[in-house]
Every structure is written in structure tokens, then in C-alpha cells.
Amino acid sequence: MTDEPLPQPPDEDFGVTMPPNARIGTLVLEKPTRTMRVQLADGGEERIIAAHDLRSLYGARIRHVSVSRVPPKSQGIALSSTALKATGRLPQAALDPSHRTGTEVVREDLYYAIAMRIEKLPELWYLNASSFNFRKALGADATYSTEINLREFVRRLAQFSPDAVRDGFFTAILQSSPLPPPLESLLEFFRIVAR
After folding, report:
1. Angle at 18 (CA atoms; ends 12, 22), nearest 5 degrees
2. Were both Cys, which of 63, 93, 162, 167 would link to 182 (CB 3.0–4.6 Å)?
3. CB 148 within 8 Å of CB 173
4. Whole-angstrom Cα distance, residue 77 to residue 31?
């Protein structure tokens, strides 16, 4: 036996590199002082950002596809394992594989993401509209519709920082035109924004 170290596996690069980012938990625009108060989701200290430090605004619809299997409907009376052993037979459904597979249901949902670049901050700040606290951001104007809340939030951000660069998503919402095609993932959104 030797005391040589065991060979180490080579480093694997899966090609998935996330740009530096931080998810926004809450955001409140303060009109009189032209600042926004941001609480990041990681629970750190609240940050105060001046309107002129908001450099660019981005948005996207992101596709989420889920596949689930729905079991087939039961055919007849369900017997317990004891009853099956007593009869010495298996039900026909247990013998026929087509009865066990069920139906595959594919569901596609679209969710919204907003991102912003802040002067002198390396990370991209973003929010997922489905989990964002619009009630805190919009106050009494918040509704129960994520899409309506998002559109109002985009308008307020654009008014708050009129000099910030806006992407096609922001422009489409502000002009009430069709939104750009959905993206495949949040990672794809980050990569587009990081260019």
C-alpha cells in the first residue's frame, strides 16, 4: 500500500453561470424624496436608492412547463390486499399495463419577472411577480390580479426614473402593445440582461 492521494475527478463545467443577482422582497417608491426603499429577500438591511441611480429596467414573461400524470379511474370495487390473497387472483387492471399508466397532463404557465440595474452595484436586482408583495409597493391601488399589479408597477417605476434605459418589455407595457415572446427560463432572462 502506498500513501499516494486518490485521483480527483476533473472539474465539470456545466455551462450554467448565473450573473450576480439578488431577489427583491419589497420595494416602496418615495415620491417626495425621489428614493426607493428596497428590502432584498435575503433579509439584509433595507437599502435606499436615489431615482437617478436606477440605470436600467428589464422585464420578461417566462414560460414554465409542468408535466404530471393523472392515474386512471378505478374500474370496479377496490379490494384490499387481504381479499385479493383470499381469492388467489389479481384484478385485470394489475395485469394490463395500459391500465396502470394514466394520462399525461402538460400544463404551461407564464410568469413575469422584472429586473433592474443600479448604479455602482454589481448584482442585478430582480423580482418574480408571482411572489412579490405588490400590496406594499402599490398600496391601496393593489388588486388581486398579478398582471394588473405588474402593469401598474411598471408604470410607476418608469415615472419614478424617466431617464432609466428600458427594454422592449417595459416599452410594450407603457405603450399598451403586445409583449415580446416568452423566454424559456429565468437564467435566459438573466443572460439577456447581462449582455
Report:
1. 145
2. 63
3. no
4. 67
Asked if 129 and 150 touch (Cβ cutoff 8 Å), the reply is yes
What would the grid cell of residue 100 be?
396502470
Distance CA 35, CA 48 (A): 6
Domain assignment present for 5: no
Q: Does residue 44 lie in a domain region?
A: yes
Q: For residue 92, is it within any domain?
A: no
- Indicate yes or no: pTM above 0.85: no
Three-state DSSP class for residue 45:
coil
- What would the grid cell of residue 87 be? 381469492
Assess if residue 85 is contained within a domain.
no
Computed on alpha carbons and rounded to an integer, the radius of gyration of the chain in Å comes to 26
Give the separation between CA 47 and CA 27, rounded to whole angstroms: 10
